[in-house]
Amino acid sequence: MAFESLTNRLSKALKNITGKGKLTEANMNEMLREVRMSLLEADVNYRVVKDFIEHVKIKAMGVEVMSSLNPGQMVVKIVHDEIVELLGTQEQGLNYKTAGITTVMMVGLQGTGKTTAAAKIANVIRKKQSRKPLLVACDLIRPAAVEQLKTLGASIDVEVFSLGIETPALTTAKKALEYAQEQGYDTVIFDTAGRLHIDEELMQELADIKAAVHPDDILLTVDAMTGQDIVNVAQSFHDQLAVTGLVLTKLDGDARGGGVLSVRAITQVPVKFVGLGEKIDDLDIFYPERMADRILGMGDIMTLVEQAQDKMDMEVSQKSAKRMMSGQFTLEDMLEQFRQLKKMGSLGGMMKLIPGMSQMAGKIDEAKTDKQMKMFEAIILSMTKEERQNPDILKASRKNRIAAGSGTKVSDINQLINRYEKTKVAMKQMGAMANGGKMPNMKG
Ligand code: GDP
Question: Which residues are GTP-binding (predicted)?
């Protein structure tokens, strides 16, 4: 993975300062120096580094006034937040049109992974966002780019539009749009020509295609294996075409990574996707927060632990877990569970953090789960204390009253009770297993 040595150095510098109970000017300066060196060594652009250190310094000066966390941890948080800031704060999806065909133009130098990224994006939006994409082969410069796109398209069940390498790219682009309209495609992704270096002819061709297809997104592929030069290349593309998103490719390699870190900061173009390997599934939507964790060596799993520790009242949870596993599970416990889950963020989001579960996370209909949890919460809140502790007393008249009070139907209440009964049984089984010694660490 890229950024490895950056991660090692940064986490060492940060560990050092976390160990210090008190922040002094001396240990703060030492930490800042280390962070600065780590970034420069990783090939991050010097201007970016300068701003970065400046921001951390200013924020860190205010640390003492904040009373939570220890000062060292606070500084780590400041560095972390600054990296998130550097990477772009929020994830950014494609700029889909609300009506009509969304057009996406891929641009970038030859070999950066443009053709591969075009297919990967088509694949991801088809599978995860139920889009109907058409790929268009407009890269007539690199030998075999058209064939490559066709092969990739076939492997992911996405049609590739091509008029062969004799037809000018601009004509192909225009015809592709007409074709997409006729065939009911909702997203058209144009793979355009790259060169080894930026030249005028290339930029003119791209500008012409841009004028013809009015892209909703112009995505520039930038290769993590390129060093600092990448910043200038990206800036030129941006100046001439007004790029709307970056695709950072080859982050799976052992690149120092500083170049790609600088591109967003200097161009202010958001990163939308990251390429993590040669295979078609090796593409991720870009999450700045997670990337920052990774760069700082915190690891996603650490985030999960932190969230759990921060936000859950551990004592309460342990106590109720014990009671629940002995079979005394009430609707009040269930309400508490819903609330804990809500505090920890979405279920799907949490699952993405757990190794091996991220595939499943995509299958959860978050909006639906969320709505259902809210409804269950409203129902429980409309119950009396007695009803929550002993749901057996819930007969028709009580259910009618609760339904009216919570704005739900009796069938919703039955659904909740059903879910409650199942959870209760499951809890009891877990308790039995723990007591039987099969899961010793569940005890206590
Ligand atoms: P283009 O000239 O920009 O269209 O580049 P290609 O899409 O043909 O990619 C160039 C090479 O980089 C190919 O061998 C790809 O398999 C490889 N490649 C593309 N993206 C990635 C990536 O994220 N990780 C790795 N390891 N290789 C990649």
Answer: 108-115, 191-195, 249-252
Residue 61 has φ and ψ, to the nearest 5°, of -65, -25
C-alpha to C-alpha distance for 2 and 6, rounded to whole angstroms: 9
More confidently predicted of 354 and 171: 171
CA–centroid distance, residue 204 to ligand 1 (Å): 24
**Listed residue (67, 66, 80) closest to 17, CA to CA:** 80
Output the six-digit token pair for 313.
């009242």
Distance of CA 32 to the CA centre of its chain: 28
The amino acid at residue 172 is T
Tell whether 114 is in a known binding site.
yes
Chain mean position to CA 405: 39
Would you say 303 is a known binding-site residue? no
Structural domains of the chain, with CATH: 4-87 (1.20.120.140), 102-295 (3.40.50.300), 299-442 (1.10.260.30)
ipTM above 0.90, yes or no: yes
Contact 40, 46 (CB under 8 A): yes
Pair 221, 135: CB distance under 8 Å: no
Alpha carbon of residue 330 to chain centroid: 36
The number of the ligand 1 atom at minimal distance from the alpha carbon of 114 is: 3
